[in-house]
Specification:
Layout (H helix, E strand, L loop, with lengths): L25 E6 L2 E6 L5 E7 L4 E4 L5 H15 L3 E5 L18 E5 H13 L3 H10 L4 H4 L9 E3 L2 E6 L2 E7 L8 E5 L4 E9 L13 H11 L6 E6 L5 H23 L21 H14 L4
Parallel strand pairs: 4-5, 5-6, 6-7, 11-12
Antiparallel strand pairs: 1-2, 2-3, 3-4, 8-9, 9-10, 10-11
Helix pairs in contact: 5-6, 6-7
Length: about 300
């Protein structure tokens, strides 16, 4: 399944390619009180859950409501606790379209997420747009019909903490991958849920027009101050803290390469891209990232 431009361009919807339909998810335990639901067929997409003493916090709802419903039902049955909160890491469709089965709980994210989703609901994710999606991918129409765009109930500025009888979860605004990106940290078991600030095993997704590479770098720097045993990325396998160091180093090296090219009057395509251990998911990914970074740093004041 090929990733579409919806992940980077707000005015488009997910579009799947032609292959057998498979929206099955797999639940995996990260630590005694943290779980992920993995949708392998969409670039190893992850949703997460933190099991507290009296309730569950879910982190992102996957692409389709059918997947989200299955995830929630399995969580509540296994742990005998209700889902009380749904935290949305950012506004890309693969992290928001499955939200409908959680509309009876508190849905929240950063304040920028709320503003972003209101704009998308009004101008991009219209009934006409969804009709076009169903026409282009009729095999997915029954899943698409279940999608509802639900605006979060509550936002936060820089940080929010949810407590439950001695356990707590911390939520931080980051604003790197997208202007509304945030992440979650469970100190008790030292588990970090990064959203798409990290897509493990992939060249980073940099070129969302609302994103900010400087905030991204600062977010990585702060993450490295936390005690971390496991990192749950928005896509890809669970990794260790060292992966954050690698990503930070790469972003800094890429920044220097872009600044050097700008100082020499070079165009984006002439940037000497530093070597990465990971390949891009799509051919357009690096060229678009270079265009974005060249424009960003051309207006950047050190």
């Amino acid at each position: 399944m090929r990733i579409s431009e919806i992940l980077l361009i707000p005015n488009k919807l997910i579009k799947m390619n032609k292959k057998p339909i498979n929206i099955s998810i797999e639940l995996k335990e990260v630590s005694p009180h943290t779980i992920i639901a993995n949708y392998k067929d969409y670039f190893d997409l992850n949703a997460g859950a933190i099991i507290l003493n009296n309730f569950i916090i879910v982190i992102d709802p996957l692409v389709y409501p059918k997947q989200a419903k299955e995830f929630r039902q399995k969580l509540e049955k296994k742990y005998g606790l209700p889902v009380k909160h749904l935290f949305i890491t950012h506004s890309h469709s693969d992290h928001i379209f499955g939200v409908a089965p959680f509309k009876d709980v508190e849905i929240f994210g950063c304040n920028d997420l709320i503003d972003n989703l209101k704009e998308k609901k009004e101008n991009a994710w219209t009934e006409e747009a969804f009709d076009e999606w169903k026409k282009s991918e009729p095999d997915y129409a029954k899943f698409i019909d279940e999608i509802e765009i639900i605006i979060p109930d509550k936002g936060f500025d820089k940080k929010r903490v949810i407590n439950d009888n001695g356990l707590h979860v911390e939520f931080y605004y980051s604003g790197g991958h997208t202007g509304c990106s945030s992440y979650a940290y469970f100190p008790k078991e030292k588990v970090l849920f990064t959203g798409d600030e990290i897509a493990a095993g992939f060249w980073p997704f940099i070129s969302d027009p609302t994103g900010d590479p400087e905030k991204w770098i600062k977010s990585f720097e702060y993450m490295l101050t936390l005690e971390i045993e496991a990192v749950v990325p928005g896509h890809g396998p669970i990794v260790k803290k060292n992966y954050i160091k690698e990503e930070l180093s790469f972003l800094n090296n890429l920044k220097e390469a872009v600044l050097k090219a700008i100082s020499e009057g070079k165009e984006p395509k002439e940037i000497d891209v530093p070597k990465s251990a990971y390949e891009p998911a799509e051919d357009w990914q690096i060229p678009r990232a270079l265009e974005f970074l060249h424009k960003y740093y051309s207006n950047y004041k050190i």
